[in-house]
What does this fold into?
Amino acid sequence: MYGWRGRIGIIVPSTNTTCEEEYRQIVPYGISIHTARVHNPEAKSEEEKEAAMMRMNQEVERAAREVAGVEPDVIIYACTTGSFLKGPGYDQEVERMVSSRTGIQALTTTTAVVEALRALHLKRIGMATPYTRGIAAREKDFLEQVIPGLKVVSEKNLEMISNLDRGRLLPLTAYRAAREIDTPEVEGIFVSCTNWRTIEVINLLEQDLNKPVVTSNQASVWLALKKMGKTGDKRYGRLFGLEV
It folds into this structure.
C-alpha cells in the first residue's frame, strides 16, 4: 500500500494544477498524497473572484469527508487565499471544522505560512504574489495582524485573476519576483499561492540572496510533516533544516 510511512490528505481548488505535483516532489519516500477538490470557477474580476472563493469554501466540509476516506494522518486545506479572506482566525476556524467532522488533525496553508515565518523568526519580509492588489493587501494585513511585529516591507503582485493562468507561470517568474523585492531591510522572502510553481527555485534563491524563503506549498508540507513527526528534505529550504 502506498503511504506506508504516512498519508497526507489535501483539499485543492478545482483549477489548481500545481499543488499536488509540488507536494509529491517535497514529501519524503513512503508518504503519499491524496486529493479532494472544491469547485473554483474562473472569474473576470476581483469581486467575482472573491465571491467564487467564498462559495468554494462552503465545499470544504464535503471535501474533507471525502479525503478522510483514505485515513490520512493530516488534512490540509491547500488554498492560501481561501484560508485568509475572512481575516484573522478564519484559518483556525476551518481547521477546527475539518478536524471535528473527520477526527483527523488539520491545517490550512495560511496557518502553515504563519507558523513557518514564526519558526524562522522573520519580522521584515518581502512578499511576492500572483494576486490582484486588493487581495494581496488583505493577505498583508492578515500576516501583520497575526504575527506581532511582522512587517511586509516590500512586495510584488502580478495582478492575475485567472487561477489557470497562475498555474502556467514558470518557476523563473517566482525567482525574478523574489529578486525584485529583495532589499537590505528584508530578512526573508514569502512567495504566496499554492498554484504558483516555486519549489524548483527555493534553494537557488536562498543561495543567491542568503536569506530564507517560504512558499505556500513548501510551508504546508513542512507543517504537515511536523505534525506527523517526520522530517523533510533540506533542498526545499532552510525551513526543513529546523528541528521537528
